[in-house]
Amino acid sequence: MIEVKKLTxxxxxxxxxxxxxxxxxxxxxxxxLGPNGAGKTTTMNMLTGFISSTSGTVRINGYDIVDDPxxxxxxxxxxxxxxxxxxxxxxMEYLHFVCDIKKIKKDKREEMLEKxxxxxxxxKMKGRLCKNLSKGYRQRVGLxxxxxxxxxxxxxxxxxxxxxxxxxxxxxxxxxxxxxNHTVILSSHILSEVSAICxxxxxxxxxxxxxxxxxxxLSEGSDAAAQLLSVPSENAEEALEALKQKDGIMSATLVxxxxxxxxxxxxxxxxxxxxxxxxxxxxxxxxxxxxPSGDGLEEAFMRIIRGENEQPDPGFITEEDEPNDxxxxxxxxx
Amino acid sequence: MSAIYFKEMxxxxxxxxxxxxxxxxxxxxxxxxISQNIVVMNANYNETLSGALIMFLILIPILTMRSFSxxxxxxxxxxxxxxxxxxxDIVIGKxxxxxxxxxxxxxxxxxxxxxxxNLSEGRMDTGLTAVGCVGFVFLALCFISVGIFISSLTDNQxxxxxxxxxxxxxxxxxxxxxxxxxxxxxxxxVFVSAIIILIAVYIHTSTKNIAVALLFAFTGTVIAGVLFLxxxxxxxxxxxxxxxxxxxxxxxxxxxxxxxxVSDVIYYITFCTLFxxxxxxxxxxxxxx
Lengths: 334, 289
Known about the structure:
The structure holds two protein chains of two kinds.
Chain A: E1 2-11, E2 14-24, E3 29-33, H1 40-47, E4 55-60, E5 63-64, H2 69-74, E6 76-79, H3 91-101, H4 106-120, H5 135-147, E7 153-157, H6 165-179, E8 183-188, H7 191-197, E9 200-205, E10 208-214, H8 215-219, H9 222-225, E11 226-232, H10 236-245, E12 249-257, E13 260-267, H11 273-283, E14 289-292, H12 296-305, H13 323-333
Parallel strand pairs in A: 3-8, 3-9, 6-7, 7-8
Antiparallel strand pairs in A: 1-2, 1-4, 4-5, 9-10, 11-13, 11-14, 12-13
Chain B: H1 2-14, H2 16-38, H3 46-52, H4 56-64, H5 69-74, H6 77-81, H7 87-109, H8 111-119, H9 126-151, H10 157-179, H11 185-207, H12 210-230, H13 238-245, H14 248-256, H15 262-288
Helix pairs in contact in B: 1-2, 1-7, 2-3, 2-7, 4-9, 4-10, 7-9, 7-15, 9-10, 9-14, 9-15, 10-13, 11-12
């Protein structure tokens, strides 16, 4: 369990992280989402005690990272954004060194390292010098290093960056698996990743938490609210006219035209897919393709980051809202 | 601490550093042994040691320039500082590893006094040689602690190496500098004030507290000024006195002549502790600012 209270980091007059508080429970995977420079890495560095906070407290399983750093760090596995590898060591030498500094008992090592190397898929690289590893394998060894000792809390800074698509899927599976009995925080600027792995997402921008909710809730609403519809070009005008007259559809615009015309259809929040279908079948216009306009989470994310959420969308909770109220309200509406 | 120590030791021999250091060490000691003892038929091994002091300029930077600069350049410092280890353990582990490598060099070159003892048919003073070697090692430990400190100041190992070279050069020259320093009272007052202001600047950069730094600078200079007015003879030769404290060589002279003073031993230990403490402080400060 990780408890963060009013954590702030100031560099000069700038706030890198501004008064954030949150709790991550045991067995939960929390995703940190935010654009570059939002304060994700700074927050993680503070959680792990690598840098200090200007004010605020961090408790890892009840141990304060400042007052009782040794015990707090024993609970932690940290994978920084740049894997901290010693180029002159082989992968196994490196992992043994990590065992040494984490004070893992000698008799438990072999079995544990066996398990970790197979989990992260680096068995074949055991004897390779770290400096000769490719970026993907460096990343994997970085993850392996965090897993040494199987600490209860794992903090992973962009764990899948630099991996190929197949590896990304593998690593995500590993993290999901670990999430069952570890507390995990991972950061990412890739939205699909967060929605694929995490139970809960925290969106952070300019050092502040701008939204936090479960991945489903965050992407709900926006998923169905905007649709991209492809129809044959010759039917575009007709389709547009018909759609605009339909109840529940706020706007319909032509966003692209080639052989097919692409229409963007927006509603005020409710699912309009049925409405679209009924309009099209009435007019006998074939639907070539119907898809949500972009990743649902991405939409939500972009809107939040742009600060367009002045009127809080019922789909997510802003800091001012009472968490339970808002999510129930959402449930009632949909 | 042992984890860091063994990692560093293995690292010395995994790379060129360890072999390069030992090779160079043996070569230079061998050269001075030939020129100071064998050719001139002198049975005093301490002549070799005092001649070889100059090699510290090159050897100590080789030993220490990587220790912390490399960690922060490779970002491996994140691993160390997020592990359940104290920073002081990390610094001491690295210090001991560098010291051990130096001692291995001393053991290898231990063959020279053995040869000398046999060649001189027992006329070599073993006690004198032993004391000389102890002084030599103490001197090296001081330089190693300085080198590790400088390495913690920068990410660039070449800058660390050059900086260590410059500081060791200054330390070796300190006797000359101290003896040629102005002895006038006024110059001393200026010098003391400059030191007080430097300390105040250090306080400011490490605590970000300008009030405390200003208070320190103000009261320090006022006290120095008042003392100057009422007891100006306190300042007689103060510059060379203060600089003389940093003269690690002056202490080595005693060992070279075969006398072990408790004060010298305490001096060397204090010197090393001070720089190890400063290194820990620098690392903590980097993480806390």
